[in-house]
Amino acid sequence: MSMLIEAIGITAGVIGILAWGPQIKEVWINKKHEGISLPTFCIVSFSLTLWLIYGIAIDSLAMIIANILTLTVIGIIILGVLRIRLDDKIV
Question: Which of 8, 9, 53, 66 is 20 to 30 A from 18 (CA-CA)?
Answer without folding.
Answer: 53
